[in-house]
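sanity check this chain:
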Amino acid sequence: MRQAASPVCVVTTRQGGQRMALTISSFLSVSADPPLVSVCINRNSRMCEAMTETGHFGVHLLAHDQAHVADTFAGRPRTGEAYDFNCVEWVNDATAREPAMCGVSVSADCHVVSTTDAGSHRLFIATVTNIVTSERRPLIFWNRVYGFPSHPADPRQDDAPPLKAPMN
């Protein structure tokens, strides 16, 4: 399946006051009305346990220049500590349960509406309760390397300004 290109996302949640994050490539937009998304998480992970318990998560579609963030939340940082939330800026929005990650293509706050176990993973389907988007090109993973989409007719620049907002 390494030939299937997929978006690179970081899923976040809180359990017992502890922030958790995990890099995934199993994100999918399910429905526009109502707005639903899905993610798959290994059932043996603490993240799966926390998402099942809380029923909430944030999903952050990383931008083309955020491979270092993906590596950090995959447990193999290029520099610094694994799972270090200081590798990127965060925005606390009073209307969202999960903080939004700055500089991403999409950041969505989600409420789980159903789960299904499938092999070693659990599929979470969630309604999007809050979303922030930007014009930044998304980071994709294909054949075990990072990349980003490109099209000659696309007027956007690779150096589009990142999503930024002050921390509350």
Summary: DSSP finds two helices and twelve strands in the chain. Residues 159-168 have pLDDT under 50 and may be disordered. The first helix runs from residue 46 to 54.
